[in-house]
Write a structure and sequence with these properties.
Layout: H1 2-29, H2 32-53, H3 56-65, H4 75-99, H5 105-130, H6 134-158, H7 162-181, H8 195-224, H9 229-246, H10 250-262, H11 274-293, H12 295-303, H13 311-317, H14 321-336, H15 340-365, H16 367-396
Helix pairs in contact: 1-6, 1-9, 1-10, 2-5, 2-7, 2-8, 2-9, 3-4, 3-5, 4-5, 5-7, 6-7, 8-9, 8-15, 8-16, 9-13, 9-16, 10-14, 11-13, 11-14, 12-13, 13-16, 14-16, 15-16
């Protein structure tokens, strides 16, 4: 258990350092319009990766951790269903993107194909963690994160173009897949309807889709409302910082999921550590206060003088920190205990709140409004998840 936590935290630390370092360098190496395009394409890619994933990553994790008696398919079959789904949706999306009459169509096509490599990597991670091989999964993630970050920075320095950077990240990720696929016994695509497996996966994919929508709606709305390139670039940069910081809490949530899948009373045992969450909240609030007060200096230090006047974006967005960590832990604990529908309702409600908030706040406040909407979304999700936990506890009492 200790080695698993230690390696997962080390992997997250490496991911945090490489993720932040990559964003700090890309925001300086790419022109503002190219960085804005890069941030937009990556956000669309990550939303579409929800479709590519189709809910199969969590399903693979679940069925490798503990297969329930009423689930009629093996973990190997589920992997085959996952790969057939990934192949079909990626092919269709890439072809459609190439036909779009917009200059960013080819960039999106590259992003969609690149997302397939990331999605397959996530399938492998799900299998490894479900088999209690957290150490192997962490080692693999460390290598991938270092390699993809180097590929992005080197390509941006040589060719300051968003499409080339995204393509090089995909190539670096794809190179690593064959070397690790055997560790998870990757199954070939299995073209079979398998209604029960796909229904479970569909519910989980709805959760992931709604979560991505409320978390990433800002960039899409800003592009639609024709916000200036520097504002989009600043919000995209701050958003990528938040993405990187989420990795810190990730390992605890993933290991809690595995343990709760094995034993639904695990949190009540000797591993219960409410003080860890309290410490996280104290640090998150203290960090948010510091960054808010010195937002201009921090923004200039991290992103350069070009983005100094966009400091309010950072000052608002940093207040997502106190909510993101608890949200992730609450969500994982509910999913492990089969509360899929309740979590989906929470995410769907938050997605609606996020869309309305983004349209209203961005119209009045530009990029800073997108950051304000993100904070409101995370706060809403946190309150809703706490409500589901309370309902579950009352139902069991």
């Amino acid at each position: 258990m200790f080695n698993s936590v230690k390696m997962q935290l080390l992997s997250s630390l490496v991911g945090l350092i490489t993720g932040l370092g990559m964003q700090l360098l890309l925001v300086r190496l790419l022109p503002p319009e190219q960085f804005g395009l890069y941030a937009f394409a990556i956000s669309v890619q990550q939303i579409f990766m929800i479709v590519q994933d189709g809910g199969f990553r969590v399903l693979l994790y679940r069925e490798n951790a503990r297969s329930t008696e009423d689930f009629p398919y093996s973990a190997e079959d589920v992997f085959g269903f996952a790969n057939s789904h990934l192949l079909v949706v990626t092919t269709i999306a890439a072809l459609v993107a190439l036909l779009l009459p917009f200059s960013w169509g080819p960039v999106l096509a590259i992003a969609f194909v690149g997302g397939s490599a990331k999605t397959l990597a996530s399938f492998i991670s799900g299998v490894l963690m479900g088999a209690d091989r957290f150490v192997d999964e962490a080692k693999w993630q460390i290598v991938i994160r270092i390699l993809t970050s180097l590929a992005a920075v080197i390509s941006a320095a040589a060719f300051p173009n968003a499409a080339i950077v995204i393509l090089c990240i995909f190539v670096a990720q794809a190179i690593m897949l064959p070397s690790w696929s055997h560790k998870a016994s990757v199954s070939p695509p299995l073209f079979k309807w398998a209604a029960k497996a796909r229904l479970h996966a569909f519910t989980l994919s709805l959760l992931a889709l709604f979560t991505a929508l409320y978390f990433r709606t800002g960039l899409v709305v800003m592009s639609a409302l024709d916000i200036d390139a520097i504002g989009i670039g600043a919000y995209g940069f701050v958003h990528r910082l938040i993405d990187a910081s989420v990795m810190v809490i990730g390992p605890l949530g993933q290991i809690a999921f595995f343990k709760l899948r094995q034993d639904s009373n695990w949190l009540a045992g000797r591993y219960r550590r409410p003080l860890i969450l309290l410490a996280y909240l104290v640090l998150a609030v203290a960090g948010a206060l510091f960054v808010s007060v010195f937002s201009r200096e921090v923004m200039t230090l991290l992103a350069g003088e070009t983005y100094r006047e966009q400091a309010p974006v950072l000052a608002w967005a940093v207040w997502t920190a106190p909510f993101i960590g608890p949200n992730y832990i609450l969500m994982q604990s509910l999913l492990a205990r089969g509360e899929d529908k309740g979590v989906v309702i929470c995410a769907a409600t938050t997605a609606v709140i996020a869309l309305i908030a983004n349209v209203l706040l961005i119209s009045g406040n530009g990029a800073a409004g997108a950051a304000q909407a993100l904070v409101l979304s995370e706060l809403s999700m946190c309150m809703l998840l706490i409500g589901v936990h309370a309902i579950r506890a009352k139902r069991q009492s």
